[in-house]
């Protein structure tokens, strides 16, 4: 009886650990995607501002 109880408890602990691990993976994936998106947006804005500073003659007639 004691052996069966230990196996059941081990399965419960492993299941909870897996759920926590999976949740952390999802959380990290969402965070890395938003970080990548904001970095890309900042890079586009920086290239746009440097392009307008390099070519001011395009705006004058």
Structural class category: mainly alpha
Count the DSSP helices: 1
Largest sheet: none
**What pattern of helices and strands is seen along the backbone?**
H
Strand percentage, roughly? under 5%
* Overall mean pLDDT: 85
Helix content: over 70%
Number of strands: 0
Pfam families: DUF2633 (PF11119)
Protein name: DUF2633 domain-containing protein
InterPro entries: YfgG
Keywords summarizing the entry:
mainly alpha, 61 residues
Write structural notes for this entry.
With about 60 residues, this protein is an all-alpha fold. It contains one helix and no strands. It has one helix at about 1-55. The longest helix has about 55 residues, at about 1-55. The termini are far apart.
Show the helix and strand layout:
Layout: H1 2-54
Region (Disordered): 38-61
Organism: Rouxiella silvae
Protein name: DUF2633 domain-containing protein
């Amino acid at each position: 009886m004691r052996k069966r109880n230990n196996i059941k408890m081990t399965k419960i602990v492993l299941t909870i650990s897996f759920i926590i691990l999976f949740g952390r993976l999802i959380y990290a994936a969402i965070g890395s995607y938003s970080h990548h998106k904001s970095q890309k947006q900042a890079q586009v804005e920086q290239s746009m501002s440097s392009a307008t500073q390099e070519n001011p003659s395009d705006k004058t007639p």
